[in-house]
Design brief:
Chain lengths: 268, 272
Amino acid sequence: MLGSCWLGRYLRTLRRFWGTALASQLEYQLNALIELVAMLASLGGSLLVLWLFYRQGVELGGWSWHGALVVLGAYTCLNGLTSTLLQPNLSRIVTHVQEGTLDFVLLKPIDSQFWLSLRTVSPAGLPELLLGLALMLWAAVADQGRLNPQAVLATALVLGAAALTLYSLWFVLATTAIWFVKTWNATEVLRAALSAGRYPISAFPAGLRLLFTLVLPVAFLTTVPAEVLLGRSSGAWVLASAGVALTMLTISRLFWRLALRYYTSASS
Amino acid sequence: MRGPRLPTWLRRHGVLWSVQFAYMAEYRVEIALWALSGVLPFIMLAVWSTAAVPDLGLSSAALGRYFLSAFVVRQFTVVWVVWQFEEDSIQGRLSPYLLQPLHPLWRYVAAHQAEQATRLPFVMLIITVFFLLQPASFGWPGVPRLLLGLLAVGLAFAINFLLQSLIACLCFWTERASALERLLTIPYLFLSGLVAPLQAFPPPLQHLALHTPFPYLIAFPAQLLAAEPMGAGQVFSLAGGFAAMGLWIALLLPLLVLLWRRGVRRYGAMGA
């Protein structure tokens, strides 16, 4: 009873948050159009670079053309998620710290990590998210001939885990602003490093492969979902990516608690 | 009493530069992070060297030198004038700048050059680490190539600055010029040679790319610094590359002057 009441309150709050965000975003329709064109051109560019390899008969890390497109689809989807939710919300943490408005957030009778992570939404990123999913499914069908419903279900799970992992990485980096104040471009470094996820992990040399699996989990963001969708992956990888997501989420939570202990408010 | 015109201009620029340098030196950590956010050429180097594409005509050592040079060129040609100008014009700082007897764009040029100077130690560090990790790629381009390369980096910065300032000028008409800058970033990213050496492009695409300013922003200076062969049968020729850079500057500079004048007239009309 108490649990559903609590969940209901958060869901109601979320609906209000996103309703107001949508209303204000609709004022800038031209921006949305430019965003759409930029997204299509950027995907076209990524396809072009991929084609530069495959037209020479090179198979990146042993992946077929369609297999590599599934990876690119997963990347596009997560990039869409970044523009829809992560970028608009988490890049503001630095501003809150700089301008002292973080105090107001902390005073609200709602979880501060929830407020900071989901306060607003940018619908301009949604087409990219959907296009990424469509590219994944289309390329998987082109590669396999048909889709196994079980694999699709498992992919949904793994992709969800990838989204949580990505969120946690962003959140931890954005939180470092509590100590360093001016790290508003730390997330740019993350974004640049994550662009490695456009390619299957086996396209990298052994050292980087290790780095992208154990330190910066790029492999779990795009390669693992693609492998699961193509039915090449065992259940162990599904469990591993769920484990990575839960670990990262816990780390982000603990890190936020730690950061708040060091936060000394605007005027002190 | 007045001295000759050029020294005054230079002295002014020197003062502006040193003020901006002091300002930028405050933001060392931030600038180091910006430098790090340019890792893309290294990621692409990893993919290209693992893929071992045939017919590329680049050994793995040459590939390493090319992408390292592309990284360095990018570091010293980054332009963020659109963001700064957009903020200045939205917040109303532009009006006092316009009153001063100095073209506001000079302020931004000095800021960019000061920031490049702050980047220098980080870039040197990254070059050192790169050669320690990949000693096989080490190669000294030779003094003439190095000097020509530095000249080309300077010209590439000029072209990029002119291009971006043209977009910044659109702030006089629209509030969100940075959205347009995003559109320009995309052909820049894929045609400049930052993600793929131009040798890997099929001939028609290479031909198309060479008719845009983008390859001269990264690929041409990077090939000079990497001491890649130029001339017949290659993507660039030495004279042809510099001539193209000169042409782009000759085209963009008058365009910028024209658009700026029109924009300021419009800006004045809006405030009146």
